[in-house]
Write a structure and sequence with these properties.
Number of helices: 16
Distance between the termini: 154 Å
Helix content: 55-70%
Largest sheet: 2 strands, antiparallel
Strand order of the largest sheet: 1-2
Number of strands: 2
Pfam families: DUF6698
Structural class: mainly alpha
Shape: extended
Strand content: under 5%
Keywords: Coiled coil
Length: 417
């Protein structure tokens, strides 16, 4: 009995061992399926992490590119705004000098000033009007950002001056050849043939107090002999109406030279507008016409002229001084822009012209200056005098007079029995 039971136990044990062996075999069969699942989960997790990191990097890259694009747009904007500075603010003075003079006046009150300091202060005032955002934006910037802004403004200013110099180099030669028809035409590309070596250019550059038609004068100027040294202390003949000055009244016809008007219009309105300089400009309003003509008949947008871009609606002393220097350079034989041409100082010449307008010696002189600038504004921009009409003058004109008469007749008819 015990033997049977023992056998049974053995059989049971065998059964249990068998069952255990079966379970172990099943575990061995299940394990290969579990490991790939775990590997796949780990791989998916790693891929998700990588995707998140890539997304984060893309966001950072996008932010960097966006910031770089904003800075680039801002840089372009500063350069564009800076193009007005040499033309209407200061041809030679730096923005730093203008700002420094303005700051000095705030720090030190009741102090005598020099002519140069007054010119710097007027320059700063002109800068503030031309770039009304400059002071506020500059005061809110960090030093490095502020210096970057000044650098870009300066780049735009010098670039515009260079563009105008290049433009007038060609146009001045065309105007001279067309009007004077010289035996030796002015080469539009070669400046070495200009200056006092060329008869027409020499005549236009000749000091107002000298007679270019005199062979002795021509030889003296070309040889830089005593008594014939050409400096910025002389007004060149090209500044005068019909290129002729009156020794007894040197203000007569000054700043009315045809080539000066042509150059001003070519730079500030358009080269094509420089073809019409004979009239007094009363028939057209260049600024209003350009503003209204947003599109031509063909649907092409009309390009704005420089005066409209920089909001220059009248001729100013500094813009006129700028053009005067540009014309002088175009007539000369020097090939690159610089402040000195032999004995002629361009910087002092610019200051002399600005001083003529901004520091008139008396009331009558100031009146003549204002009248001259009004003439220039009509000449260049075609300004009519509509804006000068008073309310009384408008009231007496026939349209308004008729309106009153009709109203009076209606009132009379209403009051009559």
């Amino acid at each position: 009995m015990s033997h049977v039971e023992g056998q049974q136990d053995e059989d049971d044990t065998s059964y249990i061992d068998g069952e255990g062996s079966t379970s172990h075999a099943e575990n061995q069969q299940d394990q290969p399926n579990t490991q790939p699942q775990q590997s796949q989960a780990v791989a998916a997790h790693v891929q998700a992490l990588q995707r998140r990191k890539i997304a984060q990097l893309e966001e950072k890259l996008e932010a960097l590119e966006s910031g770089r694009a904003v800075k680039q747009r801002q840089t372009i904007w500063y350069v564009a705004k800076g193009r007005a500075i040499r033309r209407v603010v200061a041809l030679f003075d730096s923005i730093e000098d203008l700002v420094a003079e303005n700051d000095r006046r705030y720090e030190i009150e009741d102090q005598e000033t020099t002519i140069e300091q007054d010119q710097l202060q007027i320059g700063y005032t002109t800068l503030a009007k031309t770039l009304p955002w400059f002071y506020k934006k500059g005061s809110e910037m960090e030093y490095e950002e502020y210096m970057h802004m000044l650098k870009m403004l300066r780049q735009g200013a010098d670039g515009a001056r260079g563009d105008d110099t290049s433009k007038l180099k060609t146009l001045v030669s065309e105007w001279i050849n067309r009007e004077f028809k010289p035996d030796s035409p002015v080469d539009h590309d070669d400046k070495h043939s200009r200056g006092f070596t060329h008869d027409v250019c020499g005549r236009l550059l000749c000091p107002a107090e000298l007679d270019w038609n005199n062979p002795e004068v021509r030889a003296g100027i070309r040889n830089r002999s005593d008594g014939y040294i050409v400096t910025d202390l002389s007004f060149p003949t090209y500044l005068y109406d019909k290129y002729t000055s009156n020794p007894d009244d040197l203000e007569e016809g000054l700043f009315k030279g045809k080539i000066l008007i042509q150059a001003y219009k070519a730079v500030f309105t358009s080269p094509s507008s420089a073809k019409d300089v004979e009239g007094d400009g009363d028939g057209t309003d260049v600024i209003s016409n350009n503003r209204r003509a947003k599109k031509s008949l063909s649907g092409i947008k009309v390009k704005k002229h420089i005066a409209q871009i920089i909001h220059l609606e009248k001729v100013t002393p500094r813009s006129l001084a700028y053009i005067t220097c540009q014309v002088r350079f175009a007539l000369s034989s020097i090939t690159s822009w610089r402040s000195m041409d032999g004995d002629f100082d361009y910087q002092q010449f610019w200051r002399t012209i600005v001083d003529f307008f901004e520091r008139a010696p008396g009331r009558e002189a100031q009146r003549r200056v204002e009248k001259l600038l009004e003439w220039w504004t009509r000449k260049v921009f075609g300004r009519n005098r509509r804006g000068e009409l008073s309310d009384v003058m408008k009231a007496n004109m026939s349209v308004n007079a008729l309106a009153r008469q009709r109203a009076q007749r209606d009132d009379t008819a209403f009051d009559s029995p």
